[in-house]
Automatic annotation (TrEMBL), chain A:
The keyword NAD does not apply. It comes from Gracilariopsis chorda. Residues 18-566 form the THIF-type NAD/FAD binding fold domain. It comes from the Eukaryota. GO terms for molecular function: NEDD8 activating enzyme activity. InterPro entries: APP-BP1, ThiF/MoeB/HesA, ThiF_NAD_FAD-bd, Ubiquitin-activating_enz. GO terms for cellular component: cytoplasm. Keywords: Ubl conjugation pathway. SUPFAM superfamilies: Activating enzymes of the ubiquitin-like proteins. This is NEDD8-activating enzyme E1 regulatory subunit. The keyword Cell membrane does not apply. GO terms for biological process: protein neddylation.
Automatic annotation (TrEMBL), chain B:
Belongs to the ubiquitin-activating E1 family. UBA3 subfamily. The keyword ATP-binding applies. InterPro entries: E2-binding (IPR014929), ThiF/MoeB/HesA (IPR045886), ThiF_NAD_FAD-bd (IPR000594), Ub_act_enz_dom_a_sf (IPR023318), Uba3_N (IPR030468), Ubiquitin-activating_enz (IPR035985). It comes from Gracilariopsis chorda. The keyword Nucleotide-binding applies. This is NEDD8-activating enzyme E1 catalytic subunit. Its EC number is 6.2.1.64. Catalytic subunit of the dimeric E1 enzyme, which activates NEDD8. It is an enzyme of class 6 (ligase). Pathway: Protein modification; protein neddylation. GO terms for cellular component: cytoplasm; nucleus. Pfam families: E2_bind, ThiF. It catalyses: ATP + [NEDD8 protein] + [E1 NEDD8-activating enzyme]-L-cysteine = AMP + diphosphate + [E1 NEDD8-activating enzyme]-S-[NEDD8 protein]-yl-L-cysteine. CDD domains: Uba3_RUB (cd01488).
Length: 584, 529
């Protein structure tokens, strides 16, 4: 039985405590965050920073896996581990410190190294199924544990985030076969006012408004521009075979019609007519009849959104083949009854998307969103207009809900969907997205060379004379992993053989350059390679804090299903404060 | 190199390495092997009780020719069951953590390793000076953190873990429950206490040897002499006014050589961070060398004001109803007598919410909620832990690079946006030649109608993108005060507000504009259309 992601109203005290973030992701986002269960493997400084930034906004549950005994480490200025009475195990000590930051979070830990009990893909699969998201810190991508986790998490559709810091360089990788975004919150999208295809109530309101008959100029200057444009477009269509303006000449013609609608007794600088003129162009970018934005179309034409053939409406996961025994999780605070999984949120997402597909097939357009921007208007005409939009949106959402129930009945699904979720899905239908990334395990053998080259080229990272770039550090990190696999340590970590490490690293970088089809013997990335050896896998607090902050933000975006997640690799150069992203 | 601009820091570091060639003052001062308690006292402490101590220390200071130290240390030592009191100067009281940072724990060993190993891109780094740099960083360098809020908490942790030991923090605010989702130095038990004091105490208890000195005060209550003592200032402020003031203060500290060139030893770099939601920016301001905050004021547009006629006559949105209750009804109805609206007062907030709600119901407007009411009336900026962590880390990283030269500083402005993927952009923000703070300002000409009232003109200068004066004091070139927004001249000039400009001044008149919130004086020229 799927866990119900209903929005639970927050308690007043919680409302106040989390007020500043509720203004970013809303109550729905907060409920999703509260329902999530995060597993973090390896409690390094960067991981600790990331987790701190998730504990403060109150992620639901947290399990830390780390077998490090703090007594074995050199004295350190770890902020959360400096209490003299701290427990000896690093995961235990960090959980205790984080619990003090926010007792709303359920915390637990496993005081063992993950590789001790995750020794196969099958064991990793059984393990990751327990969590909403897994964060792995400061391990080379080529580490067998990362391989196991990557393959298992990909199969289980559990997002995996890999976070690494090497001196001044930070690396972040997000892996997820599909990420569904309920609200991308991109505010540059124009509002959909349906002027190009007015629904009956809007058309009736436009018809009932006779601009020339309004003698009162105050009233005339407060007719909403939506009405003016609807009338103008009707006139244009009557003169042009019922077609929409398509060329710059026709746009001019349309603008002239808008101008001609202003009665002679109306002041020349009337704001509502100015707004109509200003929008007459903007509207046209969005006015292809029944236009569906490409990012929304990508969701609707995804095989998972097919009402008849999709297999995504229920959480169908193979059970683990073998029975795996894991070390017992030590619950620092009382455990939650069940971890809420991304896969369950996604089943609902695809079900509603399939219902929207059926709606589009029937209506030939997306459901009306119902939001109306502010515009010059008197209170009464604005509220009247707002009412007809919201009634139309409500009607459309009801129809989508009907299709949801039809699919549930027809397919015999065991999935309950909140009416409120369907309504909010339709309200933000222009902002739904789907993303998918390659797996980290695949990237090790066969990476997206073209995407990297394109991103590096844009940054100037393929130019040997350029400095201050972030892109060279992706191939260099691959070389670092090759070095680590061969030598069991990081380049530069033994200062006695530093020059030897530099020579070896130049060799590994040359190998990576060949994979990229670049000349291997040029001076390209020479300095950067030597800098990387200089960094010697040192951990600098500010780099850890910067990368931990970004990791936490990406995890928040994934768990709340809001904003647009990283696709899929980020390289940060804190020596020059530059960064690039690309889809590895 | 851009780094060279920071000569003040460089000179001091060089001087250090000359003074103590290759020596780490590790055994300089052994902390007593006893239980001890430290109480830091601000130098400005007015308590009579400590006047004697302060005088005593001053004489000690003269005797031992100590460097100026802005506060004193009262140490209570319990030795063999006998309690004795010592007053010590900060420098000696710093518990030595040299052994720890040289031993190379993950957090500090990283810096020491980078200091001792130069790379092809760290052109300013001299590995020979590693010890001197560590000594300078931990024992001599003074850093000022402005704000102990979302950015401030992160900044304090970041600079302390970077190795800075002499840290001052200024914050006027007290802790509120809505801070706890990101200001991790505070807990529920701290609500109502001073942010600066709680934050300082927390850091001092966590980082050995760290001495954070809190100032529960307004930044404007400190003078040039106070700011002059710092090597670097990092600001994590959300108020544009405070950032303008601080920027102008640091620019004003710059001295000039007789030949007119800048005396670089007087330049105090300002690192400024800001966040909003998932977006933020970090920048370095080298006064007189790079663009300053005032040069780029247009990047921080004033908050949106709703036109009066909309909120009064044709409200459409819930915000319009809230704004009407906030701006008009509060002053008109005076629900709590003649007091200013205070959104931190629960009674005031409740009144505002209910009044706005009643107005919205009267018009049939939906959506007035308590959250929206607070958002509109308080101009609340959405904030989250992760963005603060990102921007603060970028600022602290630049401060550490400035002091240590382990890498070059960025030049000079970084924007961060996490709304769609992860996007950062670092670019050189150019100086504005006519910047009123760091450039040569030109008189600003206004084309107005002589029929405009003075009040209308004042509205214009309040929203003008590079003036934004809300409390103006205007005097004409003939010496006549046209308007003063503060007493006692306000009463005398209030009657001018309704007068037409044509009645007050002639076309082409030069006006001098001063504003108690603005750090400069501007010349305005009024030309009639
Ligand atoms: Zn300037």
């Amino acid at each position: 039985m799927a866990h119900r992601a209903a929005q639970q109203p927050q308690q007043p005290q919680q409302q106040r405590r989390y007020d500043r973030q509720l203004r970013i992701w809303g109550d729905a986002g907060q409920s999703a965050l509260r329902a999530a269960s995060l597993c973090a493997i390896s409690a390094t400084a960067a991981a600790a920073e990331a987790i701190k930034n998730l504990v403060l906004p109150a992620i639901g549950a947290l399990t830390l896996v780390d077998g490090t005994d703090l007594r074995q480490l050199p004295p350190t200025a770890h902020f959360f581990l400096s209490s003299p009475q701290r427990p000896h195990n690093r995961a235990h000590a960090l959980v205790a410190a984080l619990h003090a930051l926010n007792s709303d979070v359920r915390t637990s830990f496993i005081p063992h190294h993950a590789h001790e009990f995750i020794d196969s893909v099958s064991a990793a699969y059984a393990f990751v199924l327990r969590f909403s998201l897994v964060l792995v810190a400061d391990m080379p991508a080529s580490h067998t544990l990362v391989r196991f986790l990557s393959q298992a998490a990909f199969r289980a559709n559990v997002p995996l985030v890999l976070l690494r810091c090497h001196g001044m360089i930070g690396y972040l990788r997000v892996q997820a076969p599909t990420l569904c975004v309920l609200n991308a919150r991109q505010d540059d999208l124009p509002p959909d006012l349906c002027i190009h295809a007015p629904f009956s109530h809007l058309q009736a309101l436009a018809d009932a408004t006779d601009l020339n008959a309004i003698s009162d100029t105050t009233q005339l200057t407060h007719v909403p521009f939506v009405i003016i444009l609807t009338k103008a477009l009707q006139l244009f269509r009557a003169q042009n075979d019922q077609k929409l303006p398509a060329s710059p000449q026709q746009n001019k013609l349309f603008e002239n019609i808008v101008r001609s609608l202003r009665p002679s007794h109306c002041p020349a600088d009337a704001l509502n007519f100015e707004e109509a003129l200003k929008r007459s162009n903007l509207r046209l970018c969005y006015s292809q009849v029944n236009h569906i934005p490409p990012s929304v179309q990508a969701v609707l034409s995804h095989p998972n959104a097919d009402p008849r053939t999709s297999t995504a409406f229920s959480v169908q996961l193979e059970s683990p083949n073998h029975h795996h025994v894991f070390p017992q999780i030590v619950h620092y605070t009382k455990p939650r009854p069940a971890a809420h999984r991304i896969a369950e949120q996604q089943a609902r997402f695809w079900l509603i998307a399939a219902a929207v597909n059926m709606f589009v097939n029937e209506a030939g357009r997306l459901p009306v969103r119902g939001s109306l921007p502010d515009m010059t208007a008197d209170t009464e005409s604005y509220l009247n207009l707002q009412r007809i939009y919201s009634e139309k949106a409500h009607k459309d959402a009801k129809r989508v809900l009907h299709f949801v129930h039809a699919i549930v009945d027809e397919r015999g699904l065991d999935l309950d969907v909140d009416d409120a979720l369907v309504i909010s899905f339709c309200t933000n239908v222009h902002a739904i997205r789907v993303h998918s990334t390659s797996s980290i395990s695949d990237e090790l053998d066969d990476w997206n060379v073209d995407a990297f080259k394109e991103a590096a080229m844009l940054e100037g990272g393929l130019d040997p004379s350029g400095t201050g770039k972030a892109s060279p550090y992706y191939p260099i990190l691959r070389a670092v992993d090759l070095f680590h696999r061969a030598n069991g340590r990081y380049p530069g970590s033994d200062t006695v053989v530093k020059d030897n490490d530099i020579a070896l690293m130049h060799g590994y970088v040359a190998t990576v350059k060949e994979q990229l089809g670049l000349q291997s013997n040029t001076g390209l990335w020479r300095h950067e390679t030597e800098e990387m050896v200089r960094y010697a896998n040192t951990e600098l607090h500010n780099v850890a804090a910067f990368m931990g902050g970004i990791a936490a933000q990406e995890i928040t975006k994934i768990l709340t299903q809001q904003f647009v997640p990283l696709d899929n690799t980020l390289i940060v150069n804190m020596a020059e404060q530059s960064s690039i992203t690309f889809a590895a | 190199m851009f780094n060279k601009l920071c000569e003040r820091v460089y000179d001091q570091r060089r001087a250090m390495s000359a003074e103590v060639p290759g020596s780490i003052p590790g055994g300089r001062m052994q902390a007593p092997v006893v239980k001890w308690y430290d109480i830091s006292l601000p130098r400005r402490h007015s308590s009579v009780l400590f006047t004697f101590f302060v005088a005593f220390i001053d004489s000690l200071r003269l005797m031992f020719k100590c460097d100026r130290v802005p506060f004193y240390h009262l140490r209570v030592v319990k030795l063999h069951g006998v309690v004795s009191f010592f007053i010590m100067q900060l420098e000696e009281a710093v518990r030595d953590d040299v052994a720890e940072w040289r031993a190379g724990g993950p957090a500090w060993g990283g810096l020491d390793h980078l200091l001792r190993n130069a790379g092809p891109l760290s052109t300013d780094l001299n590995p020979e000076a590693a010890d001197a740099t560590q000594t300078f960083l931990r024992q001599h360098c003074k850093i000022l953190i402005i704000g102990a809020g979302g950015l401030g908490c992160e900044l304090l942790k970041d600079v302390a873990l970077s190795g800075f030991r002499h840290i001052n923090v200024i914050d006027l605010d007290t802790i509120d429950v809505s801070n706890l989702n990101r200001q991790f130095l505070f807990t529920e038990a701290d609500i109502g206490k001073s942010k600066a004091h709680v934050a300082a105490q927390y850091i001092n208890s966590r980082i050995p040897g760290c001495r954070v000195v809190p100032h529960h005060a307004n930044i404007m209550s400190f003078d040039a002499q106070f700011y002059q003592q710092f090597n670097i200032v990092i600001a994590g402020l959300d108020s544009v006014e405070a950032r303008r003031w601080l920027n102008a203060m640091l620019v004003s500290l710059v001295q000039f050589n007789p030949d007119g060139s800048v005396d670089r030893s007087s330049v105090i770099p300002l690192i400024d961070g800001g966040t909003e939601g998932f977006q933020g920016q970090a920048r370095i301001i080298y006064p007189r060398f790079t663009s300053c905050f005032e040069c780029t004021l247009s990047l921080f547009p004033p908050q949106q004001n709703y036109p009066f006629c909309t909120i009064a006559n044709t409200p459409r949105l819930p915000e319009h109803c809230i704004e009407y209750a906030h701006v008009i009804l509060w002053d008109k109805l005076k629900p709590f007598g003649d007091v200013k609206l205070n959104m931190d007062n629960a009674e005031h907030t409740k009144w505002l919410y209910e009044t706005a709600k009643a107005r919205s119901e009267h018009f049939g407007i939906q959506g007035v909620t308590l959250r929206l009411t607070q958002g509109v009336a308080k101009n609340i900026i959405p904030a989250v832990a992760s963005t603060n962590a990102i921007v603060a880390a970028a600022c602290a990283n630049e401060a550490l690079k400035m002091i240590s030269a382990i890498a070059a500083n960025m030049d000079n402005y970084m924007m961060y946006n996490g709304k769609s993927g992860v996007y950062t952009y670092t670019y050189k923000n150019e100086k504005k030649p006519d910047c009123p703070v760091c450039g040569t300002p030109q008189p600003k000409t206004f084309q107005v109608s002589p029929k405009d009232s003075l009040a209308e003109f004042l509205e214009q200068i309040a929203i003008d993108p590079d003036i934004r004066s809300k409390k103006p004091f205007l005097r004409s070139s003939t010496g006549k005060t046209i308007y003063a927004s503060t007493s006692p001249l306000r009463e005398a000039t209030q009657s001018n507000l309704k007068k037409k400009l044509g009645e007050l001044i002639t076309s082409g008149t030069e006006l001098t504009l001063a504003d108690k919130d603005l750090p400069f004086i501007r010349t305005l020229i009024i030309n009639y259309k």
